[in-house]
Amino acid sequence: MDPSRRNETLLYDVIIAGCGPTGAMLAAELRLHDVRVLVLEKDTEPVSFVRIVGLHIRSLELMAMRGLLERLLPHGRQRPAAGFFAAIHKPVPDGLDSAHAYLLGIPQPVVVRLLEEHAIDLGAEVRRGHAVAGVEQDDDGVTVELADGEKLRARHLVGCDGSRSTVRKLLGVGFPGEPSRTETLMGELKLEAPQEEIAATVAEVQRTHKSFSLTPFDQGFYRVVVPVVAVSDRSDEPALEDFQQQLRAVAGTDFGAHSPRWMSRFGDATRLAEHYRVDRVLLAGDAAHIHPPTGGQGLNLGLQDAFNLGWKLAAQIRGWAPETLLDTYETERHPVAAAVLDNTRAQLELSSPEPGPQAVRRLLTELMDLNEVNRYLIEKITAIDLRYDFGESPDLVGRRLRDLDLEQGRLYDQLHRGRGLLLDRTERLTVGAWSDRVDQLADPTAPLDVPCLLLRPDGHIAWIGDDQQDLDAHLTRWFGKPTD
């Protein structure tokens, strides 16, 4: 370590590069635990284009856990939780185990703005127009050099700076996977053609181009998704003329497209960072994984990274984290991203116009008439099927717990502070000396098939049982040594 730094005061506990949904959510999670947070965003202003994104069931549950869902709902539109997998249209399956079993279509700038405001309200500092240019680690912290030459110090740095992450590149973390082989234009444009004509043409084109779609929104706008023959430089923003030309090439008409709200192009590049952590620097969101937007999983995957990482990094900084707790961020989230990459690969294959993939698509379409198959795929896309591997334990352990109606109100309302929670139906267990980081709720009428359970701050079940000694062991495993 540079001797001149020995007495240097660390102004921040965590610096986050990137103030998108993942970075803003992570900042808020850290502030729940009084962690000093600085968020650096290279763009001087929030994005101006209005892109509609979908918050899936698990993300809606997490928002409810932090009291954010009621802020989001007025800005979005609830849609049925169906038709996500390879755009195969089936009804909502029976038995989705959630109080929030719907999709919330919402403008992405609204999500970012609300999450950023939430983080700032909790005490996070956000600086716009500041890009990370250099990173250097030592035993005591991380030095972050900005593009203007300013240097900042923190205990940890988290790269939430997107698919072309500067932090990931500076760390030298490999980003293996497949480059783009195909390209698609996607945007929201007004179409002048009659809706009946649009629907009929889309149905005809989709016989051979499954990835083609025109989805109506409000005020005459449609989400336009149209495949392109050649792969171009993604840094080149598409123009209205590109959409008009490609619509004519694929559908024989441009439908009178005009007045775009936003336009983008994406490929089918699929990559996963080799590591999510290098000592004091971590990666989350698109900086750690990229994949095509098939199924609308990308933003949701990043938000869920933030919820998994936030309380663990805070525990490390607050000094009570068990030795390997921060390592579980990678061991839990890396396989989740790998599974998402696989299901997007599968969905893209089913969108191919080739006879083989189309035969498989027809077979899967028939199989999805079975409720169990339909539900399995919806639960996979919406992340409510997820079970973290906590070692040998009952099947319920490692899974998320749905929102419950308790004597004291809704379960998720008890998780707003980002702490652990003991839900005790026996009324005889206690969190004891862990009460500074774990809350306790005794409710003998709770609608559970187990006597007691311990929830982590991210809503995943860490333990079930009714023995105090066993509970104490699991409190130690997840929440460190008890307070003296």
TrEMBL record:
InterPro entries linked: FAD-bd, FAD/NAD-bd_sf, RIFMO-like
Keywords (A to Z) from UniProt: FAD, Flavoprotein, Monooxygenase, Oxidoreductase
Cofactor dependence: FAD
Signal peptide: none
Domain FAD-binding: 12-344
GO molecular function: monooxygenase activity
SUPFAM superfamilies: FAD/NAD(P)-binding domain
Source superkingdom: Bacteria
A UniProt-annotated Pfam family: FAD_binding_3
Gene3D superfamilies according to UniProt: 3.30.70.2450, 3.40.30.120, FAD/NAD(P)-binding domain
Annotated PANTHER family: BINDING MONOOXYGENASE, PUTATIVE (JCVI)-RELATED (PTHR43004:SF19), TRK SYSTEM POTASSIUM UPTAKE PROTEIN (PTHR43004)
Protein name: Rifampin monooxygenase
Organism: Kribbella lupini
Highest classification ranks of the organism: Bacteria, Bacillati, Actinomycetota, Actinomycetes, Propionibacteriales
